[in-house]
Structure prediction request, 349 residues.
Amino acid sequence: MADREIRRALARLALALAKALRTRRTPRARLRNLSGRRIIADGLEHGFWIDFYHNAMTISWPAFFAVIAGIFVALNLAFAGLYALGEAPIANARFGNFYDLFFFSVETSSTVGYGDMHPQTLYAHSIATVEGLVAVVLIALMTGLTFARFSRPRARLIFARNPVVAEHNGVPTLIFRLANARNAFISEATAKLWMLSGTETREGRRFVGFKSLRLVKNENPVLALSWTLFHPIDAQSPLFGWPMDDLMASETNFIISIAGFDETSAQTVHARHTFASQDVRPGHEYVDIHSIDEAGIRHIDYAAIHDTRPIRRAAPSTALQSAAAPRLTLADGEDVAVPGLGTPEDSSR
Prediction:
C-alpha cells in the first residue's frame, strides 16, 4: 500500500516538473545592489540555475553547503523512488520500506557500500549503474566548485569610507586612502580612478558614462601598508569649476580599481571600491595612522583608517589667508582657505 502511494506521488511530481519546464515564466523585477546603489532590473530572467557557476561562486558559504546538501538529498530521493518502481530490487531491503531504498541509494552514491543490501535484479543493477555515473559527475563538480571558491585570489584591502578634498602642493585635490590588511606584499600595484556621472548630448539624450581621473602617482612598487591616492582638481580635471555643493547633490560616483601581484599566492589580485559623491568630505584631511614609538618601531592603526578631521584655518598673517591663496567652497557655501596635508607626496609606507 505504501509502495503504491509512493509511486503515485513520484508520478505526480514528475508531471509537475515537466509542466514547470514547459511553462515560460514572465521575468519579474529584481532589486540589485551595485556598490551601494539600489537598482531595479526589469525584464531580466534570473534564477539560481540560469547562471549556476556565477551563483555558486558568489553565494555565502552556508548557502553553498546548503545547496550541496539539498542536491545530495534530492538525488537520493529520486533514485530511491526509481528503486521503488522495481519488484524486490534490493536484497535484504524490507518490502515497501522506502527508508531502506533511500539509505541504499545514499550508500551507492557515496560509494560506502556496507554490503548488507545490494541489487539483486537486472533493473536494480541498471539503476545503480546510472546512479554511480551521476554521483561521480556531481562529486567531481562539487569538488571543483569548492576548490575554486577556496583558491580564488582576493586582495584584502581596506578603503577609507570618505574621500577628502584638500590642498596638496597648492592645488585642491581629491584624496583617497587605502591599506593592505594582509601581512603580505603586493608588488607592482597599479591604481585607476574613474568618475561615473550622467552626461547630456546636444540632442538632449542623457547617458551615464565613465571619465578617467588622473592620479599623481598611480603605481606602487610594493604595497605593504597604506597608500594615499591624489587627483589634482586642475584645469585638466573633469571636476574643475564644479561647485562643491552641486557635486555632492549629484549622483556622481567615484570608482577605484587596484591590481597587483600577490607574492604569497603568486597570483594577480584585484580590488575595487565605489564612493558616492555624498561620501566626499571637503575641507577635511585624514588622521595620520602611522606612528613611531620610543623604540623606533613603526605602528599602523588600521582602526583609524576611516578617520578624518576638519583642516584648521591658517592664521591671518600666513600666505594661505592672502587673496592669492587657493580656496575651497564647502557644501554650505562657506569659502575657506585650506592648508596642505603635510604628508609625503607618495604617502605609501
